Amino acid sequence: MSEKAPTAAGQPPADEHARVEAGASAAGAARPRFALFGRAIEVRNFGLLLVLVILAVIGAATAPDTFLRTNNVLNILQTASVIGVVTVGMTFVIIGGGIDLSVGALVALAGVWCTTVATQDFGALGMLFTALVVGAAAGLVNGVLIAYGGLVPFIVTLAMLVGARGLAEQISNRQSQIVRVREITDIAAQKIIGIPALVWILAVVVAIGWVVLNRTTFGRRTFAIGGNPEAARLAGINVRRHTMLLYVLSGLCCGIAALMLVARTNTGAASAGSLYELDAIAAVIIGGTLLTGGRGSLVGSVLGVLVFTTITNIFVLNNLSTPVQNIAKGAIIIAAVLLQRRTSGAPGRIRAT
Amino acid sequence: MAANSPPTPIPGVNRRNFLLGAGVVGAGALIAGCTGNESSDDSTGSANVGQAAGDNAQPGKEVTIGFSAPAADHGWIAAITKNAKAQAGQYEDVKLEATEGTNDVNQQISQVQTLIDRGVGVLVILPFDGAALTDIGKQSMAKGIPVVNLDRIFTSPLAYRTWIGGDNFGMGVSAGNYIAAYLKQKGVSNPVIVEIAGIDNLPLTQQRSAGFKQSLEANGLKVTARQAAEFTVDSGQRVAANLLQANPKIDALWNQDDDQGLGVLAAIDQAGRDEFLMVGGAGSKNAFNDIKADNKVLKATVLYSPSMSSSAISLARLIGQNKGMGDLVEHEVPASITTFSAVVTKENVDTYMPLGFES
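The joint structure predicted for all components is written out below.
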């Protein structure tokens, strides 16, 4: 399943588009696109779906009168939506061979910045604009330092993690800023065709992310750069600019998530989004994306987030204590990764990159 | 960027760059202006200060007080530091040397060491972790510098001259008794009582929960469901959203912390629930305002007031000047003072309003 295999086989595809496409398809055989999509759902994420089903059965068995109620399912989805949007950006960055530790802090920074008294005076659109621009701008700083400054992503985003949270504390004066703009706080309570608005936002972000990742040159370049940056550069990809854009994308996702969290909590706080980076990275890895880059699945990441949120929900429904929750969570993460790897039959995949 | 350059052979690219550049600069200017946080109706910013009474009001020997506390990452700790500074400002005979708050015990130990080396007269320490700072407290006491241990207690009495702190167990008791009285008055049998705790592995959380549990038990009641959040707004929202699903009908809810309570209230609002009584904890300005407005499920909160920090500075001054406390007969400041966890309701909220801290 190595993506370098087709090119190495002495029959270089006409362009990187074909090359990456070939790499993504297991046998390298020409397949219709929709079949490839079907494969992505059925095989690659089968293990995770299985985990989700098992969790659902456990949930339904242990909390029969609450777990399967519509409100509870919607609650799980709603809780997953904020971290889900962050995870979409994280998936891009990790597939592109990087890592973004600053996401939690960026959610806090964008959330605080868009809920200052001055910003709230501009109304809902002003808050939206601010959250997105702050997220993207912080991502741009990450991206420029990593791509053009030649610094290690781990260090740059670690510095951003500390710095952005500091800035958030500075701006908010370490206080919780209450949102008085009704249009924003209403988002969390709003439902469209019975589905909460926040879940729709996640769905739209995931859909756009999926198309960009799997159906555009941008996506293919992301895989190529993550798989082998040098080869990608030789193939004529502007690796630096692309890497920079990946971090901007991640920052933008944090901006969106920040606004969603603000809507959900009616508050902008510098303490928001703590440890989101770990949740997002764990979800991405559980979802079958290689931490070393070059290979990954957006659908898998979203399933990973759902697994996490469902676990927490089941714990609360059964009134389990925090220590028990943490022990079980750790065990379930390992179990999910093992099951995921077994069902997608891929010890060989590990060797691929 | 390309803003001032003349037209070039590739005008398309230039225009795009120009627009992009102008857009970026414009957005930057707009956003940068948005960090302002001055509210027009901001009448607060006041800290808790108290006046010394009787003979103790007379300026005495100059006392240098060293102050060390955790990072002000939430409203309560922020108020602790603010109150200490404000109270020190009340006395012309007190000089305060405050270090920048930190959540790294190693860092805090070295800060306290620095204060000792600088030769302060009295230390006021709110340790991030009581056990970790006990040794440095002992060293300070051994060197003859009295330590006022604020709130999170050291593991050995050798490490402090006086301890002043809140009553976590008492908070739980106050909340439990208030809820029990309410349910009794309403005549609910087999009530569903829900508790949202703070960070679960902190002793203070366990003490609050123990007090709550025991006072309910004394009234023949028990906690139906208990979950821990993390003292943050978003954790409060997350936990409450799940808890509300787990319990379709609730009679009373105690949330241990008013700051995470903002998230809890948001979740309750989004779930459209209002069938129960909610009691908060700590006593933030936001909670007081909600209780006063009386338009949410939050009807009361049990105090854990950061005003104790103002009192700690007063105690440190008295210790430094070898004075006792005015109304007590003792010649010295007592070794231990526990503040009382009062229940603030709509009836008495006005008197407590000045104690509310910005969370």
